[in-house]
Amino acid sequence: MDGQLEEEKIKGSEFMLELLDRARQDNGLQLKCMLGREGRIGVAFTLLILALPTIIPLPGPFGFFLGSCLAFVAIQMMAGADRLWLPDFIGRRVLPLKAVEATVSTTRPWVLRFEAWLTPGRLGALTGRKARIVLALPVLLLAVLIALPIPFGNTLPSLAIVLIAISLAERDGLMVIVAMAACVAACIVSYYLAIAAGSALTSLM
Description:
Layout: H1 2-8, H2 12-26, E1 29-30, H3 39-51, H4 62-78, H5 88-91, E2 94-95, H6 97-117, H7 129-147, H8 155-170, H9 173-204
Antiparallel strand pairs: 1-2
Helix pairs in contact: 2-6, 3-4, 3-8, 4-7, 7-8, 8-9
């Protein structure tokens, strides 16, 4: 019981430092290291750490891979799972240390700013178990947008998921509303980015 209470006090910004320390010890971070916590905190931290790396440009197919992981997590959220998991062939994948360091150094100051605005327990019904099941649908939609090869299309969908994660971690329903507004904006911007990319590709053919 004491361990569970201590876990509830962990903030997303603190969890990022915990994972950074682990990545430095292991020269990288296995995805399965992000899992293990139950309930709201487990969902929040899993969403947070999977979405954060896709906010900034990273080499290789990180967007598709992490977007697919987020979609897998969203499906589990829809099913009301209290403990999230990833198949072993995915969980054993390693995020490079440089990617983890870049993600934490770039995004943690923003996470700290968001956390300063939060009020734990505000509109708490929007962060309960039933709400998490409902939130799984926009998370799934955003995950698909992250996975798609849309130029510069990752940032807003990733930010919306980060806002959802922070709101769940702090139990602030008002931030859930802000996150839904960010979700709508991400969908609109991604639509126009996809059109622009398609037009540019057509003009080159």
